[in-house]
Structures
1.
Amino acid sequence: MLFLIRHATAEKMADSGRDFDRKLSEKGRKQAKELNQLLSDELPENTRYFCSSARRTRETISLAKLSNEITYLDSLYLADKSSILSFLNELNATHPICLIGHNEGISELASYLSGQEIELRTAKFIALRFPFENSSYWSQDSAQVEFQGRPEVD
């Protein structure tokens, strides 16, 4: 099982001027907190969490409080579909994975794996189920969409 989450809504500009440093907006902080309500019962206990090391993704997972054990990776920052899929395949994982990242990479990955056109807007999540026990076999059109959603906040 693969859970993909796009970071919550971020501010347009960071004080530093670097995209990597953009923090969540007020709406984004509300979205991230709502993710806990929407996903906490859906994520199995043995889920492993991987998150881009950008500020907005780190804040999203922190406020969502989905896990205390998270691996932060610079390589997931603005990663493209192929890079993310290679990372997941190389994990050889037999447990569920939750990945918090950025567009366009995660939307393209969800579309590629499911064979459907999927757009992950900010704070949107999708759960994909595979007929394989090992992530090394995840490939084009091999997943079924189990569920998806997005916190609706003002």
2.
Amino acid sequence: MAAAAWKVYNEGKKYLLTADLDLNGGAVMMGIFKASSNASTFTLSTGASVTIPASAGILSQKKTLGSVTVTAGASAKVIRFDCADVVFTASSASAFSALYAVIYVSGGKALAWSKLSTSGFSVTAGNTLTVAINASGIFELTGGVS
């Protein structure tokens, strides 16, 4: 499933600038959250503040982002934070009403969220959900250049 453009939480932006969100030092994680989650609330500040209703299957899994890269984006004046696609498996039960992917630092700050579909969807037991990271990566830093 292709992730829509990632939206960085307000506090995530602040934490990046104050060095309170370390993308190199902690495990950067992704979780899948239900349509009834508060994941799209821009004022959330920690991974623990993102609600996840009682869940089964992939909704209870958290995955460490693999192949995290910080590279030039569309030009040398743009820096892109990106990672490889993330695969979740509904191994024990079907997952119902999945809608959001959230990236956060394990045990810490929330970074960004993406809406995976226009409405909640299910992944039946034994199947996988691949979150295809947006072509522009998770976020890009621009500005401050002449």
3.
Amino acid sequence: MNGVEKGRCGEDLAVVFLLERGYRILNRNWRVKSGEIDIIAEYGRYLIFCEVKSRSSLRYGSGAEAVDARKQQRILRTAMLYLQRYNRLSSLCRFDVIEILMTSPEHPEIRHIQNAFGA
């Protein structure tokens, strides 16, 4: 499985994971010139901006470690554009990371880190 396929598979798993827990998926791969947000969802009163990181091993670190300060800033800027475009500036927002570790294709490990970072 190449990187693009692994990423798509990880995002599919993350969507199922969130749906099973009562999240409502609003958008996938929402893109603007300045960036992309993998999953945008609602859960209770919160609007969730979720970054999904898929790995086949921990050789180069965890998925959450890949969401460094620069990546966080890009996600925050992109989220602000989403909020402006859809008139959701008063929404309570949360920024999550979902790590997918695919060491075993039959049993991927999913770790949901809520409030992984913020403004």
